[in-house]
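Reopening this ticket.

The earlier resolution said the output was attached, but the attachment link was broken on my side. Pasting everything inline this time so it's all in one place.
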Amino acid sequence: MVHRAELPSNPDIGHFMGMPLAVPRYTAEEVRRFPDDRLRYEVIRGELFVTPAPGTRHQRAVRELCQALHAYVVEHRLGEALPAPFEVEFTDDSAVQPDVLVMLEPQRERITAERLYGPPALAIEVVSYSSRRTDRLQKRQLYREEGVPEYWIVDTEARQVERWRPGAASPEIVTRALSWQPVASVPPLNIDLESLFRIVWTGLENGPA
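Inline output:
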């Protein structure tokens, strides 16, 4: 789950994160100094979010989407796709690790050996029990405010994608064919979601995620 207790302390404050009313503020640089303990540390507007290592369905969805997107953008010489863990820093107090992100050529001017600065062309989060609230609330708001052109929330349990675009009051819910066309002069990428979710769920229909 997203933890908000017993987390590494902010050296400027000198105590552990407690209840929401007592949450210290963090910077991206402070969060990068946390231990490498298989937890994902992200900071949004100074608030720390921690998620555990993901499960099988989550990782299969990340793999399939990243492979499809990377093959598409490379084929058309548009950019590249990267899976987590890879950091996107928006501001000094907001740095996250989307499950998959796509950078087109204009965004690649802002990439360094360590991270991407500023919005990618596409951000994707695959929700799990521990992350669904953060993905749908704090991250969605962050991506909207920072100008991410498109944001997909992939729900493997519901077998659907919630597609958010700037200015939308609600997401487009896609369950069958997901089409993405970042450049008008290039044919769109079409993703068969029914096939994707069959792969995601293979062998797991009657077992734990």
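Reporter confirms the inline version is readable. Residues 1-20 have pLDDT under 50 and may be disordered. The longest strand covers residues 40-44.
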